[in-house]
Specification:
The structure is a single chain. By secondary structure, the chain is mainly α. It is built from 5 helices and no strands.
Length: about 90
């Protein structure tokens, strides 16, 4: 089969091994989603990072939260403009 596809045996077995591995960021992503839903979809990645570090004691960098945030394409609701009287 490897000859048919033009792939070495080592590359094939490396690919099979990679398929069997679980996603290391799955647990983190679930925690991010939970914090995001608990905040009524108002927290951005910075506030989520602070919440995860201080309240849940999770050691995570803001860049990792931003990367996971972008991969799931969360969209934060924009704040409504505040009315001012002149």
């Amino acid at each position: 089969m490897c000859e048919f596809f033009g792939v070495s045996r080592a590359a094939y077995y490396a690919w099979v091994k990679k398929l069997a591995e679980t996603d290391p960021d799955q647990e983190r992503m679930q925690k991010i989603q939970t914090v995001y839903e608990d905040s009524h979809k108002s927290y951005g990645y910075r506030r989520i990072t602070i919440h995860l570090q201080r309240k849940l004691g999770l050691s995570i960098n803001h860049k990792a939260v931003l990367r996971l945030w972008a991969s799931w394409a969360f969209v934060r609701k924009p704040e409504s403009p505040k009315c001012t009287k002149n």
